[in-house]
Specification:
single chain; 503 residues; alpha/beta; Rossmann fold; seven-stranded parallel beta sheet; elongated; binds adenosine-5'-diphosphate; binds potassium ion; NAD; EC 5.1.99.6; nucleotide-binding; YjeF_N_dom_sf
């Protein structure tokens, strides 16, 4: 699913109006009735609704919803916040329609003194500003938003919480953003919904299709996309009757060190559960028996060091290489990394301490093989790419790094972002807070290595890997819950995740 910047949404709107064709007031009616139905579902018994509306089309939606709720016997009060004297055309039409409904009280809110008391059992509908917001909130609107946020009422935001910019909130005043319990967004999610600092403002969110024109949605370009099962499934290569293990590639995994052999085991097991033909696990000497016992399917390559990574086998036999889980970042490992980067010609996955070594020695970035994949969590990301104060800026830095070095750069977390060399970013909807547990990143590294070895491109291997990893985590959490979930559970649910993905 595409995620458009707010500026493009008005264009998509106009195209729909012209080419469906549909009158703009009818498009508003269609959008509002979708939202109204959702509210009815969420709050089936009539309650007091206090609807705050602004001067634009977001306000117009609010007034249309007010009319629909009143017709279903909800006690509705509408507060028109006096921002300007002029309402948008469609908001004005909806105001006139609303005035015909006798049961609805309509007030003008020109100062905070006229603010109504909000009770915990009230439903507040926030239709002050939508995608047309052009600057941080101030004046009476700021006071109203503070009062809404101080109340215990249930807050539903129309399209986007008022005050939140669709993408860039780096210069916003967070005091002036509505804290919604539920945000119902028209047709597309907004980029800002995917950033952690906005979570308490957006609340739970849902996208409501409102029938915007499919042609323009197809045509319009955007760097931001949300993954879904159909898309990921379409990337899978079918297996054929006469395939053999050579068909699915031989991968090399460099991982583990003294005290961190678990990372090597987890990554190896996940790799073998993701379709690879042959896996060689390169580990320090002390891990030999551990690996042979825990993962009999893996071949083992032994380092001359007992405890860390200092060398690697002949690379010519491998289709892809992964390095990082549990390797530590001692001087000798750094030296081995220099050599590895000089020799390697296949794509590679770089995770954990592999990333940290590159963060400490940025000159190594010049030797990165084409098609490398980085899988940092936020702290590792900071060491590799740099610091930022907000997620939008960080996302721009992520895209720039991916373009500059020709790599696929993953930023792990809720809505993991995958930045590709050509500038696009894919966000992943699968995964859950149960996965915030030791070793779950090692599992992801193993999965992506497996897919690269099978011949998927770096971008596709990363997309499938990230989606599948989250899906396995979701299936695992259905069985064991968030708290008890371990990285091994994610591996155990990889078979089910594959089946579900391919269904
Ligand atoms: N694109 C779609 O899919 C549809 C959009 N609709 C609604 O239309 C909304 C967008 O409507 P508009 O473009 O009219 O925009 P808004 O309703 O967000 O309001 C924009 C108005 O507020 C003013 N304004 C912006 N920032 C301000 C600030 N900080 N302080 C004071 N005034 C400010 C602007 O000058 C403009 O007059 C969407 O969010 C959605 O609710 C629906 O009606 C129909 C379908
Ligand atoms: N709240 C969350 N929602 C979705 N996925 C999550 C969440 N928390 C963690 N994850 C996923 O779990 C993995 C954690 O990786 P990482 O931090 O590298 O773990 P480790 O270093 O212990 O292996 C990542 O893939 C991340 O996307
Ligand atoms: K709103």
């Amino acid at each position: 699913m595409k995620i458009f910047p707010a500026s493009k949404i008005a264009e998509i709107d106009s195209y729909t109006i012209e080419n469906e064709p549909i009158e703009s007031i009818d498009l508003m009616e269609r959008a509002s009735s979708k939202l109204f139905k959702k509210i009815l579902k969420k709050f089936p018994a009539p309650r007091n609704c206090k609807i705050f509306v602004g001067p634009g089309n977001n306000g117009g939606d609010g007034m249309a919803i007010a009319r629909m709720l009143a017709e279903k016997n909800y006690a509705v009060e509408v507060f028109i916040i006096k921002v300007t004297n002029q309402l948008s055309n469609d908001a004005e039409v909806n105001l006139q329609r609303l005035k015909l409904i006798k049961s609805v009280d309509i007030y003008e809110l020109a100062s905070i003194d006229a603010m109504p008391w909000l009770f915990p059992e009230d439903i507040v509908i926030d239709a002050i500003f939508g995608s047309g917001l052009s600057r941080p909130i101030e004046g009476v609107v700021l006071e109203v938003i503070k009062a809404i946020n101080a109340s215990e009422a249930s807050v539903v935001a129309v399209d986007i919480p008022s005050g939140l910019m669709g993408e860039d909130n780096s210069k916003n005043n967070y005091q002036g953003i509505v804290k919604a319990d539920l945000t119902l967004s028209f047709q597309f999610p907004k980029l800002a919904f995917l950033f952690p600092e906005n979570a308490e403002y957006v609340g739970e969110w849902e996208v409501l299709p409102i029938g915007l024109h499919p042609e323009i949605i197809k045509q319009e370009q955007t760097p931001y996309k949300m993954l879904n099962r159909e898309f990921v499934k379409s990337l899978l290569m079918p297996r054929k009757k006469f395939d053999h293990k050579g068909t699915y590639g031989h991968g090399l995994l460099i991982s583990g060190s003294y005290g961190k052999m678990g990372a090597a085991i987890l990554a190896s097991r996940a790799c073998l559960r993701s379709g690879i033909g042959l896996l060689t696990s390169h580990i320090p000497r002390l891990g030999y028996e551990i690996m042979q016992t825990a993962v009999p399917e893996a071949m083992v390559s032994i380092d001359r060091s007992d405890i860390i990574f200092t060398e690697f086998p002949d690379l010519s036999q491998f289709k892809a290489v992964a390095i990082g889980p549990g390797i530590d970042k001692k001087q000798n490992s750094y030296c081995a990394m220099i050599n590895l980067l000089k020799e390697i010609k296949t794509p590679m996955v770089i995770d954990a301490d592999g990333i940290n070594i590159l963060g400490e020695h940025p000159e190594l970035k010049a030797d990165l093989p084409l098609g490398s994949v980085f899988t940092p969590h936020p702290k590792e990301f900071e060491r590799l790419v740099g610091k930022s104060d907000d997620s939008f800026t960080r996302n721009n830095m992520q895209r720039k790094f991916a373009r500059e070095y020709g790599v696929t750069l993953v930023l792990k977390g809720a809505y993991t972002a995958i930045a590709c060399p050509e500038g696009s970013v894919y966000f992943n909807p699968t995964g859950n807070p149960g996965m915030a547990t030791a070793g779950s990143g090692d599992v992801l590294t193993g999965i992506i290595l497996s897919l690269l070895s099978q011949g998927y491109s770096s971008k596709v291997a990363t997309i499938i890997g990230v989606y599948l990893h989250g899906l396995a985590g979701d299936l695992a959490s259905e069985k064991v819950g968030y708290e008890a979930l371990t990285a091994s559970d994610i591996i155990d649910f990889l078979p089910k995740a594959w089946l579900k993905l391919k269904k």
